User: Which sequence fits this backbone?
């Protein structure tokens, strides 16, 4: 144990990391880079029992902590861990399945695969691979859809707990329009979800999301059961899909003829709240955008999935407008999404915006993958930046990880925000899991590149 403060309790353990550091203090969609970005070219991150104690200039802090054990990462860049706000655990093994549009893709690939996850041993094996891939790609928190079977959610919770990760998981609720081997009932989904909430919500760093898959696969009775769970457990999340595909929207309108639009289906059952995360939201009306903003709900922007399945181009400029701002986080949406890498996801988000004649700076892109995503999950008091007191989840980037990246970034450390922006943009466009040198969870090394 090391301390330069005589008032520190004897069981407090301090350690430090030295490198270049980068995080956000505000939203770059609404304020300048200088007001939203913190960058320290030679910094020291002081950790206390897995939490951020202090981040500052190395020379200044090293003098205050002369005996602290320090790990140095020269020629590297450290930033908060990525936060993926929409990903399907059971689809890990079918990532990259031949592209069809959403409803056919679900029926032909997804549903048959998800049947395997009733077997707890199988779910346990896949959960280890799933968490390994997240950490290898620098993702330290994710909002996860499990299969309809509670065993699948339990498998992810157990593996995430073992790694001390902050994770949000929910078993999907589906009582119609899916194969017989995958459906539950409204009562069964209520009962099983309630047990999972009582077992796992707020257990260590784990949280629960009530997860009706989407309106098509839930009867009104099941959506009502989901709403009842939100009333009984007001600090859990609601996690589902919204307006991903035109045929999906048309079928939803047929199934819920009394609704005014797709979002209204969820509104009718009390599922639109500040703790609701809706994935995709590609084909929303102006009214739906307005109501999401008023409710302070969040959108998961899933560019690789939206392009792969031909679903459409997300209107980032509407979602992040000053008039009706909405919290937005980036999401891989594996396995409709084609990579676990949030860098590759950010790269595709840039291209989606380009096709809409919009521009997303590297700072805006990485905000959506860190502090912006944390805000979307109402976890920005715990993760997403290096603010004092937050949980120390962070990643070490090698922005020269490949020969081409080294050509593009001939020096590893930026000397200004403008230079940092250039280096980060190249890293987003060219980077992948090879860029992740190390991943830390609660201040401890959880992954290191070989």
Assistant:
């Amino acid at each position: 144990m090391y301390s330069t403060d005589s008032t520190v309790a004897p069981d407090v353990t301090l350690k430090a990391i030295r490198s270049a550091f980068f995080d956000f203090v505000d939203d770059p969609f609404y304020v300048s880079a200088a007001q939203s970005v913190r960058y320290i070219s030679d910094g020291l991150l002081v950790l206390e029992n897995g939490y951020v104690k202090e981040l500052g200039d190395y020379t200044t802090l090293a003098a205050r902590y002369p005996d602290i054990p320090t790990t140095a990462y020269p020629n590297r860049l450290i930033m908060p861990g990525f936060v993926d706000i929409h990903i399907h655990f059971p689809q890990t093994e079918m990532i990259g399945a031949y592209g069809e549009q959403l409803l056919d893709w679900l029926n032909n690939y997804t549903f048959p695969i998800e049947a395997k996850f009733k077997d707890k041993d199988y779910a346990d094996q896949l959960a280890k691979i799933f968490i390994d891939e997240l950490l290898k790609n620098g993702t330290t928190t994710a909002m996860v859809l499990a299969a309809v079977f509670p065993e699948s959610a339990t498998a992810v919770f157990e593996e995430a707990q073992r790694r001390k990760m902050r994770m949000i998981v929910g078993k999907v609720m589906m009582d119609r329009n899916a194969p017989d081997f995958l459906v539950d009932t409204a009562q069964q989904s209520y009962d099983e979800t309630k047990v999972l909430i009582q077992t796992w919500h707020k257990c260590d760093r784990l949280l629960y999301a009530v997860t009706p898959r989407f309106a098509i696969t839930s009867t009104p009775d099941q959506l009502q059961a989901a709403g009842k769970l939100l009333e009984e457990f007001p600090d859990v999340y609601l996690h589902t899909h919204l307006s991903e595909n035109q045929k999906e929207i048309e079928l939803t309108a047929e199934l819920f003829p009394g609704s005014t639009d797709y979002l209204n289906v969820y509104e009718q059952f009390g599922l639109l709240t500040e703790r609701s995360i809706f994935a995709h939201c590609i084909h929303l009306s102006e009214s739906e955008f307005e109501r999401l903003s008023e409710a302070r709900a969040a959108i998961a922007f899933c560019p690789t999935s939206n392009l792969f399945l031909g679903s459409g181009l997300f209107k980032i400029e509407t979602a992040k407008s000053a008039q009706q701002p909405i919290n937005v986080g980036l999401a891989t949406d594996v396995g409709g999404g084609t990579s676990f890498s949030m860098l590759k996801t950010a790269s595709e988000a840039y291209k989606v915006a380009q096709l809409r004649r919009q521009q997303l700076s590297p700072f805006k892109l990485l905000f959506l993958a860190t502090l912006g995503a944390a805000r979307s999950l109402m976890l920005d008091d715990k993760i997403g930046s290096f603010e004092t007191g937050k949980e120390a989840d962070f990643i070490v980037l090698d922005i020269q990880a490949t020969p081409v990246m080294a050509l593009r970034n001939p020096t590893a450390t930026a000397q200004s925000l403008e230079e940092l922006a250039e280096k980060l943009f190249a890293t987003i466009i060219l980077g992948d899991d090879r860029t992740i040198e190390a991943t830390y969870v609660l201040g401890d090394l959880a992954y290191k590149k070989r």
User: Anything to note?
Assistant: Residues 1-9 have pLDDT under 50 and may be disordered. The longest helix spans residues 120-136.
